[in-house]
Fold these 3 entries.
Entry 1:
Amino acid sequence: MYDGGKILTGLIIGIALFTLPFWFNLGKAAKIPEPKLTPKAEKAKFCVESKEYMQAEHMALLDKWRDWVVRDGNRIYVGLHDKKYDMSLQNTCMDCHSNKKKFCDECHNYADVTPYCWECHIEPKEEEEK
Amino acid sequence: MGLNRREFLKIAGVSVMGLGAPTMALNALFKNQLNASQISPNPKALHAKRWAMVVDLKKMNKEIVEKCIKACHSIHNVPHIPDKKREIKWIWETHFEHAFPEQAHEHMDEVLEHIPVPVFCNNCENPPCVQVCPTKATFQREDGIVMMDMHRCIGCRFCMAACPYGSRSFNWQDPRPFIVKENPEYPTRTKGVVEKCEFCAERLEKGLMPACVEASEGAMIFGDLADPESEVRKILRSRYSIQRKPGLGTRPAVYYLI
């Protein structure tokens, strides 16, 4: 190999530079968020669907709800244990999950998603954390 | 080159798996879908084949119009923007000659000339705004209400150009700072969407009459136009009524008694 030493040094420097962000952030993984329930949500025992379903598919549920409500004019949802709910993000979901910062934002920030629900839907008034 | 039994079975087996794969993939994709059995009708909701409004101009005065506007705009989080070019309105007051340019002339009787006319979306039977909307963000429900789906509105304002009544307003800016007092039960709008009166579809669903009807002290009547025994039909049978720009063929669902 001609100029082997130079090429290898260049390669090593190149790789080091390229992977710099990984070295830089090594061992500094963001903490996995643990969404907290409000006392009211805790007391309700169950959500509109199972916890596992809501964790994985709440966005699909909300998407379906908005079509049912806005486009079809249906507003009552029959959820777990045949309990009936008003299909409303603002009035039903956020009534129990009134701790948006802890319950919604923490995970959404972690997953780097920015749902624009709150540009129109009014979020619950929360007291600033001390 | 013939197939022997063993080769034939191999190919057949692979083909059957191939046929099954799309179904499995689709099942995996839709396994968490909700279905329509999970919605239930609301027994309290008001239903009609064709909702319509009758405005009795004989009973109208400034005070009542003001009350109707206030009721509507406070419930629906309609911002108060002083700049006329950017203002948002669902229901507003105008002069007879502006509401009914075809009927008005320079020697009208004095009552009509000075009467405050409340105007709002006509929820037309043949709505031009619905025809032009490229995303179906504005659409007509089966009961005749012309609805807005804010989730779909892209703010192209074709509907505003199409509406001959100016019933639609565009959010040139974030409306939130201009909302006097937020109603936490109703959403606001965001920058870049068009909004208008929807005959209080969300209140009908709860069994309530539209906000303006409730505030109007009997000067506005709301009901089913398809039912010959409804209050709106009875009134329309017995009194002389006019509509806004009927010649355009939009077939408004708002009637004015003069």
Entry 2:
Amino acid sequence: MTHAAAEHHTSMGVPSRKMAFWAFIGSECLLFGSLISTYLVYKGRSVVGPYPHEILNIPLTSFSTFDLLMSSLMMVLALAAVQRGDMKWGKIWLLSTALLGIVFLGMQTYEFTSFVREGLTLQTNLFGATFFVLTGTHGAHVTVGVIWLLTLFFRALQGKLGPEHALTVEISGLYWHFVDVVWIVIFTVVYLIQ
Amino acid sequence: MDQVTPVEHAHPGAATYLRIAAVLAILTVLEVGVFYVPVFHAILVPALLILSAIKFTLVVMFYMHLKMDSAFFTFLFGGPLLLACCVALALLFLFGAIGLGK
């Protein structure tokens, strides 16, 4: 509680950094909203293949979805550990979250390279252009999240991250969970509703 | 200088987080099941959208702590999210991706 009180709070009693980050997440909703809209507007308008039903790998992507959901669980467990001052488990959960993020990126890289081998690139058709921009932007966000989490992990290893930095971990968690909810929408709209 | 009282709310424990994770995993299995089982294809789109919305809401409410946190954060997130949904619907109507029929 004393650590929380040391944070700067707005006149509404909420931490300034957290409020600013929620505003940022709000702006990210608009970014991904526009990318998903663009994908949907051009859906079914490609005049040459490969088409979505010919190329999308549902088993692989289902596993990616499960992987990202479990990484969100690891993230909240990391936050809970840091908040109670249990830095040993805080480090374990932070590293687990980052590793699951890396697994997700590995599967996305495999998916992208296999699509390119099968002839789908950014320039092939409208599906390729909108698919790669949408999922690539999401993948870039996951990459930033992994770097952020690894930074926190190494700071924790050096003893520079403790319960007094719980808000910092919570904000990185907000980012990570947002990346997860965006993927929940992409998985449904792009992969399952073909 | 005004005294500001921090708004603090307790976050759920590990047991709640694990229960939410189990529900999310089950919902994902259901989504993939609905996709593969032909009998569900008549209701594929609404079923998938509902399952996806439930997953989205669970993560935002419990993992992002919107259920416990200040209502102002819900406004900061919900406002742009609603705007994004409206823009998406407007674009889909405008470009004829969805319509009200002729």
Entry 3:
Amino acid sequence: MRALIAASLLACASLGAVAPPAAAQSGDDIFPFETRRFELDNGLRAYLIHAGSPGMLAYASVVRTGARDEVEAGVTGFAHFFEHMMFRGTAKYPNYDAVSESFGANRNANTSQDRTFYYLVAGSQYLEKIVDLESDRFQNLSYGEPVFRTEAGAILGEYQQGAYSAFSILDRAVRETIFTEHPYRHQVIGFEADVRAMPQQYQYSLDFFRRFYRPENVVLVVVGDFDFDKAEALIRQSYSGWAPGYQAPAVPAEPAQTKPRTAAVTYSGRTLPMLALNWIAPAWSATDRTAVALEILGDIAFGPNSAMYRKLVIEQQRLQSLQAGFGLSRDPDFVQVMAMVSNPADVQAIEAELLAEVERFKNEPVDEKMLADTKSAARYGFLMGLETHLGVAGAVSRAIINTGEMEPINDYYRTLQSLTADDLREAARQILTEGRRTIVTLTQAGG
Amino acid sequence: MITHRRMGATRLALLSSLALASLLYGCGGGETIALEEKGSPFIAFDIWVKAGSQNDPEGKEGLASLTAQLLADGSTQQDTYQQIIEKLYPMAAGYGASVDKEMTVFRGTVHVDNLEGYYGLLKNALLTPAFSQADFDRIKSQTLNYLERQRRYNRDEELSKELLYWMAYQGTPYQHPEEGYVQSVKSITLDDVKAFYDTYYVANNIVTAVGGGFPGGFPQRVRADFDTRPKGRVEKVPAPELEELDRVRILIVEKETDATSISLGFPTELIRGKGDFYAMKLVNAWFGDHRNSFSHLYQVIREKRGMNYGDYSYIEPFPLGYTTQDRPVNVSRRSNLFEIWIRPVGQTWVGDLHPRALFAARAALRELARLTANGLPESEIDRTKVFLSDYSLNYGSTVSRRLAYAVDDAFYGLSGPSGYLAAIRPELAKLTKKDVDGAIEKHLKSPGMYMVFVTRDGEALKKLILSGKATPNTYSGEVLLSLVSEDQQIASWPIVVQGDDIRVMDISEVFESR
């Protein structure tokens, strides 16, 4: 409530010579900054990007491993757990935190379904030290079992600070209803039983590092004010000795869903009913018109500027909130419309209205002005995300997560800008079908 | 979904050459702050209304917040709310309101291509609101849903912080949460909102701040627009005057949960930029820098013992700290607490929920006592200077944030080289051990402490605290030998408190009414 509400916020470029005007793309590429790509013999890829404020840089390591790679039983949440262990030092630098603190670096990491993202933001004068520190921990991480067990306690604490909200409980129910085989069945943090058993998994953690933390599975993104030649030389020198050997996990494909599913869960605290409509969707693509069209269809049909939002949230006030989450993932994942219903007796009627709206988008072409405005919003949204070094790294990492390369980000926006009303209607017809649908409701226990 | 190792998503980076804001004065009497960054494709706004929740009338707590939300999220005389959304949509821009104890700000950023269309909407929202009954009903309903359900059930650690302020500021205008109480918000009418707007949204009470690559004369134009508001006389609310806390006072909020959220604190006299502020900034960064492994408390409770997700301390308010690593802006106040945030501590075995919570709280109290007894060694002062000098470059990572810091400077009467972002590094460099230890002595030696626990079975925790029994930690793995002796000291660290000073409250009563 205290946070800034309303639509998307924040933006801006920086001072001085390094930042070009955000609109000055070359050709029809949306990405505006000078970039160099190179690849080492061991498969490590690196992107160097000139952007952001003078004297600073962001150094990001994108590991293309996340919760989707947790295919064995009993080890859900491990990609995220392992992210924590990466801060536990090496023989050369036993105290990673102390070293990075001495640069005054803002450093952290986060884990999603499809990747683990490590970063430091610091003064450009620390580039050499940062390359040394980061290349060392990715190749020579070393920790004992007692430290491993201690960190497992912190993970349980992390689980507990977020696990008990109504939203989190609904999310778990949605995943467990949609997926039977694919690891998207579990949240990134993992199943609680697995989180509690983590202290026993020391040996597995060593295997995890050996299998996944390999150069072919990692992409470096360095953004900021620095010399390309010097950075490339440092990276080549520090990472070339890293032995390849990535073992891709056998991620099980989810059996095709053919019939609609439903589920209902209750919440022991107080909440208004929440209704989640979900459809299993294709994997992310930069060029597949149906996939890209589906991603913007969510906003058009159920976002704050949609007819449904106007009717149910603003005019009739039958919903407290209405949101669309139509972003796609590396593997087929679900897209979602989420509504919080003001009157518990109204849930079924709301569900019927939302489903009728889906049918309308299968039959009627989307309004041309709405389509044009959505393209504009996508373009400005992207450009306004490029204000900071880390924002730039995050913007390109979407393509990197899914493809291993950043170039598709330009293809993606080209596809998006070329979409027609027919593409959107086709996406609705192909994906928002009854056979792909799962509806989950959450209500307060005891009514 | 993304989980974070140590903090929320950040939008970082910054900024070595710091532009200084210039303070201009409009002929209508209202102030303007202009932070020009030539060549930037973005323009940020920070419209500061000098009123906050401290200005809420008794029984109408939450009025400042509801007023601001209605303006940010409602119709204008020119456009319905839906039309506003429709116009903002292609710009990927928006504006929003934030209300703290003393200040209300409306913030937003837009690409220069869209400046005219955007500014027109922002201006109308603040100068010609429609005060539509339908908008009011929608926002009030959403607020009540938050107060009755989400605030109580979604995030215990944020709740424990709100309760700490509620305890410490009893009887002052800072006492109530910005969003108000359930009953007070229920009593607020649209006429109340209009009256609040008429009283406080007057030309001489609004500061217009603009930053980024704006065209020539733009800040003056914004000022002139806001000077069309009538002038008015605004009564100044006296700053809270808190007496020194002479004993431990505990609030236990009872609810079904598997982990205990803990907040501790006491009043200080520290104000940004004044007196020992920078010395205490250094001390606090060492003791508990927000969501940073540099924090000593983090090292003791999380890193060595794996008890929870993190442990930090504060000399200025930090609402919504679980969402972000970025320092909050526009929460300037004339009174502050020293505050310790211990993130939820769960149970590892049946029956150890309360002992572990008390162990973590005792560990924090013990570390604070050690700090006040020993001061900080020279080597730690130097290490903190090195860290904080560079790390603080991250604070103003966007033009919106830099502008907001300039507004906060105006609140505190700081400007030019004494402005916060400009002053941090030189002020840190100047500090001596004498300065640092003197500040610790003066500001951290409190005979009393407010303590808040949100946990299961409150009476049992109360009994355990009053028994004075040691509460050893339990580990999910083996106990590290190196910790055994220290753990014994922590487990029996005294919490001296009288039974009358421990209150147990059910979650359903929390923030129901004054």
